[in-house]
Amino acid sequence: MISPVSGGRRAGKASVDGGWEFWIDRGGTFTDVVARRPDGTLAVHKLLSEDPGRYTDAAVAGIRRLLGVEEGAPLPAGRISVVRLGTTVATNALLERKGEPTVLVITRGFADALQIAYQDRPRIFDRQIVRPEMVYSRVIEATERTGARGEVIVALDEDAVARDLRAAYDDGFRSIAVVCMHGYRYPAHEARIGEIARRAGFEQVSLSHATSQLMKLVSRGDTTLVDAYLSPVLVRYVDQVASELDGIRLQFMQSNGGLTDAHLFRGKDSILSGPAGGIVGMARTAQAAGFDQVIGFDMGGTSTDVSHYAGELERQYETQVAGVRMRAPMLSIHTVAAGGGSVLHFDGSRYRVGPDSAGAHPGPAAYRRGGPLTVTDANIMLGRIQPAHFPRVFGERGDQPLDAGIVREQFAALALRIGAAAGGPPPPLSPGSGEPSARSRRSPSPEQVAAGFLEIAVANMANAIKKISVQRGYDVTRYVLATFGGAGGQHACAVADALGITRVLIHPLAGVLSAFGMGLADVTAMRETAVEAPLAAGLLPELDRVVGRLEADALAELAEQGIGPGRARSVRRAHLRYDGTDTALPVPLGGVAEMVAGFEQAYRQHFSFLMRGKTILVEAVSVELAAAPAAPAVLAAQPPGGPAPGGISGGGPPAPGQAGGAGATVTMYVAGAQADVPLVRRRDLRPGQRVDGPAPCQSPSRWGCGCAVPRTRSTSRSGWTSPAPSSTRAGASSPTRRTFRCTWARWGRASRSS
To answer: Taking a C-beta distance cutoff of 8 angstroms, is the pair 255, 328 a contact?
Structure first.
């Protein structure tokens, strides 16, 4: 599965200083590795994230295979300049509540404040309320209290705190989170408790004023707890990886979309480490292709992440993950449990897709490890995935193709169950075939069952996109759907159809774009602090002073990573809200009139009204310092062989021997029937070429993201790139074929791609 990008073309520059660079995304099902060789060419490798019989860590195994280093042999540090890694290790630990046992130290009288939280009930009609499990195991109430203006109401009882901490340490606890009332602004008591905890032997000490220097006890406390709960897990994983990468620079992707060195990677910044690389890759490649309004659609093996991009990366400064409120900058990503590995269920009356996933082990039924039926198996059943054109990485030795036979067998059995549940008698079986010879009216075919499950999966993903677009006031029909992830191409056209989107962008590296995004990401340091003062001209000097202090702190972090101030660019923001509300919106820091105008525009966009009589408060200010990689990755890839002569081809399927097709046909289930359709190879397509659907489009190698070009249901929506003929555009319903036009991004200049 080692493939040079674009036939080994140079990736934008003749050489890269130093040695190999590895950009890795460790997902729930697959781990993707994109490597840049010293000569500037790219190589790609994809492997299962878990394969206990063959390797202990997929990221290191991918590096070994690309370098040709045997398992157990030391990696040649002199040949590797940097490894950039995005991981879901911390995310999974939080979701599964497998973090470090943690002690919460909080102001006396507030022991259950984080559990009570805001007393919200998101599912108000549930008769049985299931609360998320708290991430702390013990609470110590510290006798102390500081007022809102810094006055000491109750002095800190250091002896009592030390006694309780020693008892917790003796009971095996090694991680502690300290949250004091008003500690974000007056941190003396928190700092002193931290000193006592370190002296007692605690290895992980997270203080709220250092973790989240913002008001709101609940979200600040939860953020500090997550940091204490996950940081030890990350330290162990980083140490495991670093032990095999001795002497090699190791960077991790943060939730905010920026890279940082391994020793600076913290639990609170790790929640979206995995999907963040894909968002960065989507935004940069779409921008290079000429699009500035993009919906990101990242469908992997375990889940689907959707995102909105309109010229800049969108971040959330307060969010909730796995029942825990987080107050830290994160990319704005909405996740649904609908991936290629999502398990298909029939409960006797309805179809359900997910939320559980087959993961990498055992994986889908077709993976030859006894797994259940999944979305991937449904695509195999319908011919959207062709086992003959899929990587042979399955079975005990990792060299077998997908097992289409077991998929058909299990779908046939499921169809019989569904037919029986619907009241139809089981149809007789053909002798020795294992398949029904004739079906009752109520018994669906295996293909109909698979298609029904896919419709549900597509609806789930389309609804997720509506949450980040339509429900926030954006007209999604004006956007491009940028699809990536291993399973994205199989569903992109159906999702776009459900949303009325008329253009789909599939980058040549779409199948590994989350890993590719690691090479496009900046090294980033972000700082923020509370202000809580009315916006006025007299406040601006104080804001400049505070921002200057934050900027100096962030510059020191970049300097620690070998980045001088000349390489860093700074973005300063003020977070504004109306007095009496709790939703702050970020705007660029500037003059009062500029900030008010920016705030009102953003507020109207989000809420459709303004409160002009209300005072505008500066809740907080933040600084983002970013430094681009010394040798940035190329943003686009060109198909091998260059552009086709003659420009746009005709609308029919490519003939055998012509550019655009090898003459192969495959069987797909389309519009309720089996059909022989042309197999389009992406490497044979040329800029401007059109292919009539239905037709599966195969990626040029085993790491790409293929797609299925559908047959249209109605010409009331235009084709993917070409508008329907004028005689049928005005709401006509006569069926026609959907066309797919190929355009390619080129070096340095990208044409509009669909």
So the answer is: yes
- Give the per-residue pLDDT at 696: 83
Give the Cα separation of 467 and 304 in Å (integer).
Answer: 13
Asked if residues 283 and 309 have their Cβ atoms less than 8 Å apart, the reply is yes
Q: What is the pLDDT of residue 9?
A: 34
DSSP structure string for 76-105? -GGGEEEEEEEE-HHHHHHHTT-S--EEEE
Taking the C-alpha atoms of residue 275 and residue 306, their distance in angstroms, rounded to an integer, is 10
> What is the phi/psi pair of residue 491, to 5°?
-125, -5
**Alpha carbon distance 393, 46 (integer Å):** 10
> What confidence score (pLDDT) does residue 195 get?
96
Distance CA 352, CA 343 (A): 8
87-98 per-residue burial string, b: 16 or more CB within 10 A, e: under 16: bbbbbebbeeee
**Region for 30 from its dihedrals, namely left if φ exceeds 0, alpha if ψ lies in -120 to 50, beta otherwise:** beta
Element (H, E) at 586: strand 585-588
What is the rounded CA–CA span in Å between residue 295 and residue 309?
A: 6
Question: What pLDDT sits at residue 215?
Answer: 86
**How many CB atoms lie under 10 A from the CB of residue 294?**
23
15 near 40, Cβ under 8 Å? Answer: yes
Closest CA to 449 of 402, 382, 384: 382
Could you give the CA distance from residue 569 to residue 572 in angstroms, rounded to a whole number?
10
Helix or strand holding residue 484 (H, E): strand 480-484
Whether residue 179 contacts residue 109, with contact meaning beta carbons closer than 8 Å, is answered with no
Q: What pLDDT shows up at residue 241?
A: 87
Helix 446-468 to helix 404-421 angle (10° resolution) is 90
The label of the residue with tokens 């006055």 reads 151
Alpha-helical segments (H) within 400-539: 404-421, 446-468, 488-499, 513-520
Whole-number Å distance between alpha carbons of 411 and 740: 31
Q: Is the peptide bond before 362 cis (omega within 30 degrees of 0)?
A: yes
Q: How far apart are CA 235 and CA 524, in angstroms?
A: 20
pTM: 0.80
Asked if 710 and 720 touch (Cβ cutoff 8 Å), the reply is: no
pLDDT score, position 205: 96
Q: Which residues pair with 527 in a beta bridge?
A: 623
The two tokens of residue 222 are 């939860």
Q: Which residues pair with 106 in a beta bridge?
A: 141, 179
**Helix (H) / strand (E) containing 741:** strand 739-742
| Residue 702, token pair as written in the block | 């085993």
pLDDT of residue 305: 87
Q: With 0-12 CB in 10 A as exposed, 13-18 as middle and 19+ as buried, what is 643?
A: middle
| DSSP letters spanning 650-706 | -SSPPPTTSTT--S-EEEEEETTEEEEEE-EEGGG--TTEEEESSEEEE-SSTTS--
Measuring CA to CA, which residue among 620, 513, 610, 19 is closest to residue 283? Answer: 513
Q: How many CB atoms lie within 10 A of CB 10?
A: 15
Residue 666 and residue 546: Cα distance in Å, rounded? 64
Residues 6+ apart with CB under 8 A from 17: 81, 630, 631
Query: Following DSSP, what letter does each residue of 214-261 receive, concatenated?
Result: SS-HHHHHHHHHHHHHHHHHHHHHHHHHHHHSTTSEEEEE-TTS-EEE
Mean pLDDT, 10 residues at a time, over the chain (754 residues)? Answer: 37 54 86 89 86 84 90 86 89 86 96 88 79 90 94 96 96 96 94 96 95 89 94 90 87 93 90 89 90 90 86 85 83 84 88 82 86 91 86 78 90 90 59 48 83 91 89 87 86 90 88 90 92 94 95 93 88 94 92 95 89 93 88 50 30 37 75 84 77 76 49 32 30 38 36 34
**Strands 568-578 and 585-588: what pairing?**
antiparallel
